[in-house]
Design a protein that fits this description.
By secondary structure, this protein is α+β, with helices and mostly antiparallel strands. The protein has 19 helices and twelve strands. The chain has helices at residues 9-21, 40-47, 52-67, 81-90, 104-110, 131-141, 163-167, 201-204, 211-236, 280-283, 301-315, 337-351, 358-371, 382-390, 415-421, 424-428, 438-444, 448-451, 454-471, and strands at residues 3-5, 27-31, 97-101, 124-129, 152-155, 170-175, 186-190, 284-291, 323-329, 396-402, 408-414, 486-489. It has a four-stranded mixed sheet with strand order 1-7-4-2.
């Protein structure tokens, strides 16, 4: 083991780059201290030696979910085991894989990533690994009697649309034992002097998210919710009641059992399930400035945003293939700029690859100008939130929407618009169609696939459901109406 000492992270990265160019090392790992380079699973089992069954159950739930997702079903193939665990690793699941990067600058970031100096004693470190030397060593070790079972495998895998892995130039070392007892990595050590100017945190942990990452966010949000519910039930020592056990007897309301509406068939909605493969480096980076004007004769800022976005997309259709950073100047002082920028980014990346029209996207982003000026939209007081959204849509009603994976969100939309979106055939099948209001309709049924005209509902989704979720700072935002299997009053 060789130790190289330098003065700061910049010198450490420069030295690592030099050694990489000279062929000494090809992988790098940064840590705030020279802690043992264990896998996250090894560390987890050290702290939770009796909880392996719970971890296995969590893994099985993820595996079962993956098989039902068109974007991820390929991960169920045993040959894709490394890709499966690459996803889990980047979402905090304990695995036998250890993070490395092919870029010294990424290792430098992780070796310095703290706002305050690390507690002494110790040094920041960039571990330097030559994977060929490591594999050769284990080739010899495996010839020794009793050591044949020791595994070390350098893993390079590109998971399509996993931008965080791509942005970090990530790679992994798979191991089934305490490999560091057999191979002590060379290292560059240095005192902490701050975080380097490049790469930025936003580069390492992209603020833009791909369609896959939105999907994974939904899954892991629901996992945390299930774990919290299990914990609370254990603490309270009560029996869980599954709400799915309760059903509505539709014969009291309908002439005949409602049937799926043709507009919601998989053939009709094929375009809504397509997820293009996008690589981080070729998708992220474009910045589009939009300057709003003021003055007595100027249109409202919301209208200017709507027209600017629509005109830009009509003029350059290829923009929808990029995670554009829309940069607005001239926004009113009452708009929460940080909330607006985050919401615009999420709306753009959540909608651009779905078959929303340019006008739909522009309308969603326009609505955010108004909503991000209403602080009560994301407060804890439901009554104040109702009033805030009513100032945007006078007949706003609060709704809850969910998908088959039990992921749910809440939103606001117009009572009138929802009523108009009810399918004509569904209305005609009612015992008393003249009594229908949206409140009674959503008491009769919660499955949007049986009751709403899809085109009209997607229009509402773009203009009301998506912007209001973002304005409320919902932990998970549902962008795709075809993924819903429940829609009711909150």
């Amino acid at each position: 083991m060789k130790t190289m000492r330098v003065a700061n992270v910049e010198e450490a990265v420069a030295l690592a780059n030099q050694l990489k160019q000279e062929g000494e090392y090809n992988w790098f790992r940064g840590q705030l201290r020279e802690w043992t380079p264990q896998s996250s699973l090894e560390r987890w089992l050290d702290k939770n030696p009796n909880e392996k069954p719970q971890l296995d159950a969590k893994l099985n739930r993820f595996f079962a979910w993956v098989k039902d997702q068109p974007q991820l079903a390929y991960l169920a193939d045993p040959e894709q085991i490394n890709a499966l665990f690459a996803v889990l690793q980047h979402y905090g699941f304990p695995t036998s894989y250890i993070d490395f990067s092919t870029e010294p600058a990424v290792a430098g970031f992780f070796a310095s990533d703290t706002a305050q100096p690390p507690e002494p004693p110790g040094n920041c470190v960039i571990y330097c690994l030559n994977t060929t030397e490591l594999v050769d060593l284990y080739g010899d070790l495996n010839q020794v009697s009793g050591l044949e079972h020791l595994l070390v495998e350098p893993v390079v895998v590109d998971v399509p649309n996993l931008w965080r892995l791509q942005s970090q130039r990530g790679c992994f070392l798979y191991t089934n034992h305490a490999w560091y007892h057999h191979f002590d990595m060379d290292r560059i050590i240095f005192p902490w002097t701050g975080i380097p100017a490049f790469p930025s945190r936003e580069r390492i942990y992209p603020v833009d998210k791909s369609s896959l990452e939105h999907l994974l966010d939904q899954y892991f949000f629901n996992e945390r919710r299930l774990e919290n519910q299990a914990f609370l039930r254990t603490m309270a020592n009560v029996t869980h009641i599954d709400l799915d056990e309760f059903t509505t007897d539709t014969q009291d309301y309908f002439i005949a059992p409602p049937k799926p509406i043709e507009q919601w068939s998989s053939d009709q909605l094929q375009a809504w399930s397509n997820a293009p493969i996008e690589h981080f480096d070729s998708t992220v980076g474009r910045r589009m400035p939009v300057s709003l004007r003021s003055g007595d004769a100027a249109p409202t800022p919301a209208y200017q945003v709507q027209q600017s976005i629509k005109n830009a997309l009509d003029w350059q259709p290829a923009l929808r293939a990029e995670a554009v950073e829309w940069h607005f100047t001239g926004l009113p002082d009452n708009v929460d700029k940080q909330h607006f920028e985050a919401s615009i980014r999420a709306a753009w990346n959540g909608m651009r690859n779905l078959p929303y029209t340019n006008e739909d996207i522009a309308a969603a982003m326009s609505a955010l100008v108004t909503l991000c000026s209403l602080s009560d939209c994301y407060g804890n007081d439901g009554g104040n939130a109702d009033e805030a959204f009513a100032s945007w849509i006078p007949d706003a009603v609060r709704v809850e929407l969910g998908n088959p994976g039990s992921v749910y969100s809440q939103a606001y939309c117009s009572d009138t618009h929802l009523l108009d979106a009810l399918d004509a055939g569904w209305r005609a099948n009612l015992q008393n169609p003249e009594l229908v209001s949206i409140v009674t309709a959503l008491c009769y049924m919660h499955d949007p696939r049986l009751m709403f005209d899809f085109k009209r509902l997607s229009w509402i989704f773009a203009r009301e459901v998506i912007p209001s979720q973002l304005a409320m700072k919902r932990p998970v935002v549902l962008f795709n109406p075809t993924e819903m299997d429940s829609f009711g009053l909150a």
